[in-house]
């Protein structure tokens, strides 16, 4: 069983428990559920921003604890100040030490799009994302069937959310292209063994239809890599570990952004 398999099994258990604790109607009654979401495309294509989707991530299954001292609020505010186009916050608890409360904490200090980084297996999690302040939800093609991607993305759009689809190969891409998707990210990290290769991005960039925002994810640690990925056709770049592993993620992104 891969790490991804274990995460999905655990996630289904979590969702079942969450539904018993908080009903869909209760989520829909939360104040943040009614807010209008920031537009991901507009923010990514804003020439005054960097195209970076900067991630707050305390830990990961492959690295363990990455940063246990920097708070959500200080980090994401620093990311925003450094010109990030959007923010990603991990909400998985068991494998990444995140929470929905982290999402709301980020929302309280941001004026740019916020992604709930999560392993979504049920529409309930999409309602949660809206209720806790997200503007964007993530759908991972590796753990969803074609019809699930279609139905979940359409539900997210009905709530006014932006939809970010993550793929790892051409097969996943081809099964996942729907009008209800806003951005397609190529994850350079294999979720089955956590190895990283930028070749995933270069192999797929020209196979992603031009109407979608194109995002390269993971394994980006050098501003020169961003320049090369931009030249190849990518609009955005999801970076987390490279900043979070430092003592001062806010300063790290500032120095990085100045070199793009």
Automatic annotation (TrEMBL):
Its EC number is 4.1.1.48. It holds the Pfam family IGPS. Residues 4-255 form the Indole-3-glycerol phosphate synthase domain. GO terms for biological process: L-tryptophan biosynthetic process. It catalyses: 1-(2-carboxyphenylamino)-1-deoxy-D-ribulose 5-phosphate + H(+) = (1S,2R)-1-C-(indol-3-yl)glycerol 3-phosphate + CO2 + H2O. It comes from Sphingobacterium cellulitidis. The keyword DNA repair does not apply. InterPro entries: Aldolase_TIM, Indole-3-glycerol_P_synth, Indole-3-glycerol_P_synth_dom, Indole-3-GlycerolPSynthase_CS, RibuloseP-bd_barrel. Keywords: Amino-acid biosynthesis, Aromatic amino acid biosynthesis, Decarboxylase, Lyase, Tryptophan biosynthesis. It comes from the Bacteria. PROSITE patterns: IGPS. Pathway: Amino-acid biosynthesis; L-tryptophan biosynthesis; L-tryptophan from chorismate: step 4/5. GO terms for molecular function: indole-3-glycerol-phosphate synthase activity; phosphoribosylanthranilate isomerase activity. CDD domains: IGPS. This is Indole-3-glycerol phosphate synthase. Gene3D superfamilies: Aldolase class I (3.20.20.70). Belongs to the TrpC family.
């Amino acid at each position: 069983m891969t790490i991804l398999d274990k995460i999905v099994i655990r996630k289904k258990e979590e969702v079942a428990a969450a539904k018993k604790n908080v009903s869909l109607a209760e989520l829909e009654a939360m104040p943040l559920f009614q807010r209008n979401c920031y537009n991901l495309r507009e923010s990514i294509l804003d020439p005054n921003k960097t195209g970076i989707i900067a991630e707050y991530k305390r830990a990961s299954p492959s690295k363990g604890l990455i940063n246990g001292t920097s708070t959500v609020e200080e980090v994401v505010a620093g990311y925003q100040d450094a010109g990030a186009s959007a923010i990603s916050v991990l909400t998985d608890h068991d494998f990444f030490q995140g929470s929905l409360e982290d999402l709301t904490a980020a929302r309280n200090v941001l004026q740019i799009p916020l992604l709930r980084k999560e392993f979504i297996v049920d529409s309930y999690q999409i309602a949660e994302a809206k209720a806790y302040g997200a503007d964007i939800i993530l759908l991972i093609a590796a753990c969803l069937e074609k019809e699930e991607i279609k139905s979940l993305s359409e539900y997210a759009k009905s709530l006014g959310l932006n939809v970010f689809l993550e793929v790892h190969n051409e097969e996943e891409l081809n099964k996942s292209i729907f009008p209800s998707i806003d951005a397609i990210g190529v994850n350079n990290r294999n979720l089955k063994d956590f190895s990283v290769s930028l070749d995933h991005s270069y192999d797929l960039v020209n196979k992603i239809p031009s109407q979608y925002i194109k995002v390269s994810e993971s394994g980006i640690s050098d501003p020169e890599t961003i320049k090369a990925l931009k030249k190849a056709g990518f609009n955005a770049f999801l970076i987390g570990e490279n900043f979070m592993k430092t003592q001062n993620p806010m300063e790290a992104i500032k120095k990085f952004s100045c070199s793009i």
